[in-house]
Design a protein that fits this description.
The protein has two domains: 80 residues, no CATH class; 50 residues, no CATH class. The protein is 34% helix and 12% strand. The protein contains six helices and six strands.
Amino acid sequence: MAAGEIIVIEPIPERREIAMRFGATSVIDPNDDPDSVVEQVRALCDGPSDRIDAGGRHARGFFQLPLRQSWQVTRGGGFLHLLSANQYEEISFPSTEFCLSTRTIYGGQMAGQHVLRDNPRIIAMMERGHVDAGPIITARYGLDGIIEGFRGVAERTQLGVIFVP
């Protein structure tokens, strides 16, 4: 998508390393200083923008904090892609900032990926050698290991799991 900056906020060291191999320009460990994550991202994104709707201004000022931080570090005219969130928590924003900030929010599981449309495209890119999924496949299981595999992904001890019949 020709992004100029790809910033990953990830507490697990191995996942930060993989993010850098896959093109992240910066990685932040939120455990180092949780209160400065917003400022760190703003500092990385500081500077002029060629987006006409960006305005060159910053906004004023466990899922709820990362969602709020994600909102805060997205500059006016920017795009926020949410991968997941705790469905039982609510989050609020100042109404004027929400209405006038010109942020675009893409919600949904997997940042809006359409499984029936996108997975065949991704598989075709892997088959042609355009995408190397090897670094993100951290475990392989037989069908008898489905529960263990999903548990590893849910507990974030595995990045990508393949089930082989």
